[in-house]
Design brief:
9 strands, alpha+beta, hpI Integrase, Chain A, 9% strand, 418 residues
Length: 418
């Protein structure tokens, strides 16, 4: 008397892109009636299940056997079961309007639609929405990486990313993006491909991984780091005349970062008065807590007389936080946005100081860490000890900070040339 099948409702929708999502329906053929019944995702908000043609093909035609697809089909099957029960109850009293009314009142709710999209942007969004422990800054970087790849080829899918594609992208960005930046973008894309492969398990068996093993090699590239000379750092320390109180405050912020183990500004922003343990600051780098699972060690920074003077200038005793710029319970978005806003303000004043002192390297909050490592290395401190003070997990990372220091020795070396 009745026939019920799943149907992707493409009626009236022509020339749509491959990633367009159509309503998923139960198509009911009862007597002389053909009825399209949309499958609800959330009855309270009138949201309905929508799938791309590729998703529908995999789940309902090829009947993909991955766990997510099987469970989704089972939940959708309750709608067909409901149709069969309603038709059985109505019997000879069946009318189209009464059938539709009962279906809408009693239809099951289907959640957790299967994810089968191979579009890079979709996979990125799925990764961000379904993984925890990632900072707002990291997520933003991930989206930037995807956008850069999409500028080379619009509506990019993972299947489009081949070794030849990556070489073409590299050549097209030469001179526009630094090698180190392009490498960081590639590492992000590689992470998304690994996520699609190992977690989502949506890639075909014939898929060929584009990185390593004869494919594209990301490599390691550390740009030459230019660091201020010792006498320039001394000029910053000795500076007494400022154009405004805000300019002096920005210099004191930089000097605190420099003297406190070259910490990142976000660590100072999060630093609390109770991080003071006797004559030391003891705290964990925010970056370490977010990215490292093992070998997490606290930073221990001596509270020198110079730091004590700076605390009087930049410290806010009315707040649990040293800078007084955060409130208890601030979320990740608030902290990241506050950090970027304040760095923008301080760096503006630091640029003015750079011009005033005619520094060879622009003065920014980020350069305090380089200058700290530089000063130690110039004075004979071992790379291992420098890495310990910086909170690095291995010497390779420390080498990155020291990469530009030896460039100053080139004059001494080449003075022997006739």
């Amino acid at each position: 008397m009745g026939k019920f099948i799943f149907y992707l409702d493409q009626r009236g929708k022509k020339n749509k892109t491959d990633d367009y999502k159509y309503p998923l329906c139960v198509r009911a053929n009862i007597k002389h009636d053909t009825i399209y019944l949309q499958i609800s995702q959330d009855r309270t908000t009138n949201k309905y299940v929508k799938l791309t043609k590729q998703q529908f093909e995999l789940v309902f035609v090829k009947k993909s056997l991955d766990t997510q697809s099987i469970e989704f089909r089972e939940r959708c099957r309750t709608h067909i079961t409901r149709c069969e029960k309603i038709l059985s109850i109505l019997g000879d009293n069946y009318t189209r309007d009464e059938f539709v009314k009962l279906y809408k009142n009693n239809g099951e709710v289907v959640n957790n639609q299967p994810f089968n999209s191979l579009v890079l942007t979709d996979i990125c969004n799925h990764y961000i929405d379904n993984t925890s422990g990632r900072s707002v800054k990291y997520k933003s970087h991930l989206r930037t990486s995807v956008n850069v790849f999409n500028t080379y080829q619009a509506e990019l899918t993972i299947l489009d990313i081949t070794p030849s594609f990556l070489e073409g992208l590299k050549n097209s960005k030469e001179g526009l993006i630094s090698p180190a930046t392009l490498q960081s973008y590639n590492r992000d894309i590689r992470k998304l491909i690994n996520y699609a492969t190992n977690t989502l398990k949506i890639l075909p068996a014939t898929y060929q991984y584009p990185y390593g093993n004869g494919g594209y090699t990301i490599g390691s590239y550390f740009p030459t780091k230019m660091v201020m000379r010792a006498e320039e750092i001394q000029k910053i320390v000795d500076l007494k005349e400022f154009d405004s109180p805000e300019q002096k405050y920005a210099r004191d912020i930089w000097l605190f970062l420099y003297r406190c183990n070259g910490i990142n500004f976000i660590d100072l922003l999060n630093m609390r008065w109770d991080n003071m343990k006797g004559e030391y600051f003891v705290f964990y780098r925010r970056k370490t807590r977010k990215t490292r699972k093992n070998n997490i060690k606290p930073i221990k920074s001596p509270i020198t007389n110079g730091i004590k003077v700076l605390l009087e200038n930049i410290g806010d005793n009315s707040s649990p936080y040293i800078l007084g710029q955060l409130k208890e319970g601030s979320n990740e978005n608030t902290i990241t946005n506050k950090c970027e806003k304040l760095k923008g303000i301080y760096n503006k004043h630091l640029r003015e100081i750079s011009s005033k002192l005619n520094l060879s390297v622009p003065l920014r909050t980020e350069t305090a860490r380089d200058c700290y490592a530089t000063t130690l290395y110039r004075n004979g401190v071992s790379k291992e000890d420098i890495g310990e003070m910086l909170g690095h997990s291995n010497s390779i990372i420390t080498e990155h900070y020291l990469a530009g220091i030896t460039i100053e020795k080139t004059n001494d070396i080449n003075k022997h040339i006739l």
